[in-house]
Design a protein that fits this description.
Layout (H helix, E strand, L loop, with lengths): L24 E5 L2 E4 L4 E4 L2 H4 L8 H10 L12 H12 L5 E5 L2 H16 L3 E5 L40 H4 L2 E4 L4 H10 L4 E6 L15 H11 L3 E6 L10 H6 L5 E4 L10 E5 L1 H4 L20 H14 L4 H21 L5 E6 L2 E6 L8 H5 L3 H13 L2 E2 L4 E2 L6 H17 L2
Parallel strand pairs: 3-13, 5-6, 5-7, 7-8, 8-9
Antiparallel strand pairs: 1-2, 2-3, 4-10, 9-10, 11-12, 12-14
Helix pairs in contact: 2-10, 3-10, 6-7, 11-14
Length: 423
């Protein structure tokens, strides 16, 4: 260990999965980042997909600078929370009422408490392989690397922890279920009859590249859970605002009971939202201890709210999504064409402004078993090579509004150089 900052990082997620090192950034602007060592990269990571508008968007930063004249206000309401909540209710189909928290992980753990309190049940179903943050209740079967590979389908998965230190009592109340497997969900709901408070899932799995729900899955899952007396929670912390103002739920035409938003909501400035139907959300208003506790010093902080208001203002412009999506779609097509002409087999999968790259196959990737079968060392060598060429990849690959045609052409050129050398 060197230095006072343990490992030189404040989050284990800062370590790049392809290089094993963290990046120290001095400046981020538009589609580029500059390291403290003076290297410039075209950023395809975009702060875990937070910066749909690009780094240092002038509208967002102008709003932050202006609001700071009022002071760094935490622990008080300012009226700004009501304004942003009204925007969310207008744009997001499931949102009838909103509460703000500080982070996505806090939104997940608080929502699990809310669902348990509302239903007076204990069991939460989560999808085997979906990432839902870093709370004790979420680090069970999170990411494809911690899925139950022995599960043939049609039943719940074996709990697999992503971290030590999680009490068995927590593990006993979270049941992982395979993704896109309606028979497994049916069997699990029957197994835990009258005990399931909620199911939480990401409607588009960008954390594992880009794996989408099978046709009809979201609607069928919602019907099954509702019939069993449970609550449907969409974790749109990463998918929120990536396919449009109405998020993934509008794209698929399925309205959950509760939606979790963060990242792109406020252009990466710390702020998250729990938004949902008034009936479930009202449990926060029931006097304690019968109701559900939600609170925190930084919940609905003025800086995050100012950033969110400005961000939603830009996203809601009529030409924003058509222009960005058109540019992103051209990039995805040209990137796939580059791989198809190269000796390196690779599959580009994309939806909205986020995409996944699966190195070592030209076939569609629809399951974690298929990801598991890929050559992990080949993936590492390829993406490490891209980073060496000045294109930064980490996780959660993104195209932002700040990525120009020229930027994206440079990305394809540099990636093509690596693809020609590594196969």
């Amino acid at each position: 260990m060197t230095g006072a900052l343990l490992g030189g990082i404040s989050s284990q997620f800062r370590v790049n999965p392809f290089t094993g090192q963290h990046l120290e950034v001095a400046r981020a602007n538009g589609a580029k980042i500059l390291t403290t060592g003076g290297r410039e990269f075209i950023d395809m990571f975009m702060a875990h997909g937070s910066t749909v508008l690009g780094h240092a968007n002038p509208d967002v930063f102008g709003a932050i600078r202006e609001i700071l004249d009022a002071g760094v206000i935490v622990g008080y309401e300012t009226g700004l929370g009501e304004e942003v909540a009204e925007q969310i209710v207008e744009f997001v189909p499931s949102a009838e009422a909103v509460r703000f928290v500080a982070s996505g992980s806090e939104a997940v753990s608080t929502t699990m408490r809310l669902c348990r309190a509302h239903t007076d049940r204990e069991i939460i179903l989560k999808i085997d392989g979906h990432f839902n943050g870093g709370s004790d209740y979420a680090v069970i079967n999170s990411m494809w690397t911690n899925t139950d590979s022995s599960n043939p389908g049609g039943r719940p998965s074996r709990p697999i922890l992503s971290s030590n230190g999680v009490p068995q009592a927590v593990v006993d109340t979270v049941v992982p279920v395979p993704w896109n497997d309606i028979p497994a969900l049916e069997a699990t709901l029957e197994m835990y009859r009258d005990r399931v408070a909620a199911v939480i899932m990401v409607p588009i799995d960008y954390n594992n590249g880009c794996i989408v729900p099978s046709d009809g899955y979201l609607a069928q899952a919602q019907e099954l859970v509702h019939n069993a007396g449970g609550i449907v929670v969409f974790d749109e912390v990463l998918s929120g605002f990536k396919t449009g103002l109405g998020c993934a739920q509008e794209l698929y035409g399925v309205t959950p009971d509760i939606t979790l938003l963060s990242k792109a909501l406020s252009s990466g400035v710390p702020l998250s939202a729990i938004a949902g139907c008034a009936d479930v959300m009202s449990t926060f208003m029931v006097p304690l201890p019968k109701g559900a506790l939600q609170g925190g010093t930084y919940a609905g902080n003025i800086i995050g709210l100012a950033a969110a208001k400005a961000t939603l203002g830009v996203l809601s412009k009529p030409d924003f999504y058509p222009q960005m999506q058109s540019r992103a779609d051209r990039f995805y097509g040209e990137l796939q064409a580059m791989f198809d002409a190269s000796p390196l087999p690779a599959r580009v999968q994309a939806l909205g402004c986020m995409f996944g790259l699966y190195i070592g196959t030209r076939d569609p990737v629809t399951s974690y078993q298929e990801i598991r079968a890929l050559d992990r060392e080949l993936n590492k060598r390829f993406f490490a090579g891209c980073i060496e060429e000045g294109v930064y990849f980490h996780t959660d690959f993104s195209v932002s509004a700040a990525h120009s045609e020229e930027n994206l052409a440079q990305v394809i050129e540099r990636m093509g150089k690596v693809a020609s050398q590594i196969h």
